[in-house]
Amino acid sequence: MKVVEKIIDDEGRIIIPKEWRMKHGTAVIMIELESYIKIIPNQKHRLSELFDSMEVAALPDMTDWHEFKKDIFRRTK
User: Fold this and answer.
1) pLDDT, tens digit, for every residue of 41-71?
2) CA nearest 4: which of 12, 14, 13?
3) What pLDDT is attached to residue 17?
4) Are 20 and 29 in contact (CB under 8 A)?
5) Which residues contact 31 (CB under 8 A, 6 or more apart)?
6) What's the CA gap between 35 and 53, in Å, rounded?
7) Are 38 and 31 in contact (CB under 8 A)?
8) Distance between CA atoms of 75 and 77, rounded to whole angstroms?
9) Residue 1 has what DSSP assignment?
10) Which one, of 33, 30, 35, 32, lies nearest residue 14 by Cα?
């Protein structure tokens, strides 16, 4: 694990070391937690990697995609 200390400039920017950007990519997800901010790479995944990754006891009505999506997100929280 490597640790670096950075200063946030007046525009709110942080410079990520080039080696890290080359290794992990340039898209990130930032999560604000109680006492710190977590920055993690937003790696692209193939949709096929997600197949069979979730089990649902009873599937809702899938004729309305938007309602189906809302229901699935509610079940995963």
Assistant:
1) 987 777 777 777 777 666 667 788 888 888 8
2) 14
3) 95
4) no
5) 37, 38, 39, 40
6) 31
7) yes
8) 6
9) -
10) 30
Give the pair of three-digit tokens for residue 70: 């809302």
C-alpha distances in angstroms, 12 versus 26, 27, 32, 37, 58?
Answer: 17, 16, 15, 13, 46
Tokens matching residue 53: 């990754």
The helix (H) or strand (E) run that includes residue 32 is strand 28-32
C-alpha to C-alpha distance for 66 and 60, rounded to whole angstroms: 12
Provide the terminal-to-terminal Cα distance of the chain, rounded to the nearest Å. Answer: 31
> What's the predicted TM-score (pTM) here?
0.52
